[in-house]
Amino acid sequence: MSQITIQNLHFTYDGDHTPVFEGLNLQLDTNWKLGLVGRNGRGKTTLLRLLAGELEGRGTISLKQPCLRWPGAVADPDRRTLDVLLEEVPSGEEWRLSWELSKLGLREELLDRPFATLSGGEQTRALLAALFLDEGAYPMIDEPTNHLDGPGRALVADYLRRLDRGFLLVSHDRAFLDGCVDHILALNPTGPELVRGTFSSWFRDKEDRDRGEAARNEKLKGEIRRLEQAAADRKQKADAVERAKIGISQKGIVKHGLRPYLGEKSRKGQQQRKNIERRADRAILEKSALLKDVERADSLKLTSLAYHSDRLLEGRELAISYPGMNGKPVSFTLWQGDRLCLDGGNGSGKTSLLRLILGEEVPHTGELFRASGLVISYVPQKADFLRGDPISWAEGQGVDRTQFLTVLRKLDFSRELFQRDMSEYSAGQQKKVLIAASLCRGAHLYIWDEPLNYIDLFSRMQIEELLLQYRPTLLFVEHDRVFREKIATQVVEM
Q: Is 483 exposed, middle or buried (0-12, 13-18, 19+ CB in 10 A)?
């Protein structure tokens, strides 16, 4: 049994004043199939980079084998896939590559194609096959599902579950985690939490704890209000006695013979007031410490626009007709209030169809009706083009500054992030910027292309609640099975 031991680890990025880790202590078994979860910006990828030796912090990291972080950079994607993968495969292990590829649903002839011609899902599965051929290193997998369609996610989850070795996996896909891990490491606000079980079992326990803490919090707030009122009442009485002691009262001058009595009464009253105030202060301190590990997810708001007719979109025998693409024609009608999901494998034309609906020139057959004057709010797949500070970017997009910052704060953005260049954000934080901007735009139709890529679990749940509460007209592509099942009112198979 091999262990990874982390002792008193401190790490802060250069130029940043907020530590990512302060005094982190962990002991991990490398035989575990360990899922790593937490809010965007909580330090998941940073932890992987520290274990891989790409970053250096203060403290001690003890491990008996090197940690290999996936995905690595592909230097020249125009080379043959075989040559790209052999860089990751130890000498003498090439014969196993085809076998591992077959387990992940990939054919051997794919190895002779340029790596760049593979779909995102094919690239992901091919690189995973090469990763697990290196048995001398501990594999750490950072968000593999972002380029996988639904069947691809199920295939990879099954592959990981059947492995006879451990790994560390970062993912925000609830069903995917449940399908392949046996331990959960959660990076909570007050520190790490390590438990045995699936994501769902951990999350159920966390919700139970949160409800218990919330109930105790409400009880404590009532006690604080009672103590504060008692302290105020006692202060009022003590002050009245103090005024009487020095010869002043509402009725006039107090006789001098009563001064010793009133002095003692005043002293006792002031002491009682101080005791009550101390009790109230202790209760307030207890309350402030109580809910630090409760992930707050404030409700989001959305103001969509009403269109003057119910039919917004209609496709009749639509098919994308790029060379080599033989997609099955689809027909659909999108009515106001619908939430339509385009479902299908990688390369089936989902994003191309969205681009066609957005008004781009995309070769196709069939007919598309789009209501005239339709106001559309669009979230693209990728957010890595974002540069500069978010406030200036939002103003350039015509988005209300106050509303935009409010949404980001509710999505767990710290105020310090508003001053940083967006190119330094994590991938999840960049995607939140695009979603926040979309939510701030009043639109007849919201078109979101894989909006949850890199988005943390708690923010996914916030977005689910938003869509179910405000019911905007939505056309979307998303491979998170739980999200699709909750949100979609109809599904079009591509």
A: buried
CA distances from 443 to 118, 372, 466 (A): 36, 13, 15
Euclidean distance between CA atoms 104 and 365, whole angstroms: 33
Q: Which two tokens stand for residue 92?
A: 């003498």
- Residue 250's pLDDT band, with cuts at 50, 70 and 90, is very low
* The 3-state secondary structure of 445-476, one letter per residue: EEEEECCCCCCCHHHHHHHHHHHHHHCCCEEE
**Measured on CA atoms in the order 271, 273, 276, 277, is the torsion positive or negative?**
negative
Q: How far apart are CA 161 and CA 156, in angstroms?
A: 9
In the numeric block, the tokens 């003498």 are attached to 92
List alpha helices for 291-399, DSSP H: 350-357, 390-396
Estimate the crossing angle of helix 427-439 against helix 457-470, to 10 degrees.
10
Largest CA distance in the chain: 109
CB of 457 closer than 8 Å to CB of 427: no
Backbone angles phi, psi at 312, to 5 degrees: -105, -40
The Cα–Cα gap between 133 and 128 comes to 9
Residue that the structure tokens 């972002």 belong to:
146
Q: Indicate the residue type of 349.
A: G
CA 118/CA 182 separation, integer angstroms: 31
Q: Which two tokens stand for residue 106?
A: 């990939």
**By CB neighbour count within 10 A (0-12 exposed, 13-18 middle, 19+ buried), where does 458 fall?**
middle
Mean pLDDT value across residues 45-56: 96
The predicted model scores a pTM of 0.76
Provide CB contacts within 8 A for 165, sequence distance 6+.
31, 132, 135, 139
